[in-house]
Write a structure and sequence with these properties.
alpha+beta, Nucleoside Triphosphate Pyrophosphohydrolase, 16% helix, single chain, 9 strands, globular, 9-stranded mixed beta sheet
Length: 164
Amino acid sequence: MIGMTLCIIKRNNELLLLNRDSSPAKGLWNGTGGKIECNETPLECVIREVNEETSINIMNFQVFYKGQVTWTVDNNDAGGFYIYLVEIPYDYSYPTPIKTDEGILDWKSIDWVLSNNNFGLGEAIPRYLPFVLYEDNPYDFHFTLLENKLIDFSFNIMDEEKNT
């Protein structure tokens, strides 16, 4: 079951990322987002979570649904998240780094994020991020891990009826 959201906030050639202080992804750079609350849609969740974690109201910008990411871990369904992209204007002022209750927010260049052997990110991000940033269609991304090692990654363009 998918019970979380993740938002990638893009400004020019930078992404606003959060280095989380707690699990999941403790100590790694990631987008912002969180758990979907009861009776909340994924879109409502991502708007709320981004505002809580960054104080940015993404409703002031266009919010693009980019698909979903799910995992199988040691042959068990491990859930996943709905992923969104928000592009903010090049002149939008949001000085960083900022220390928050969740961790440290900072702008990172897309080149840095997608660079080879970048150990500051979870291993899934460089696999799905190019699709999120550069493809129009939403995708269904799936990762399979066995004993904490990524053994498979698959992706498909989502059917229209799956779009949230």
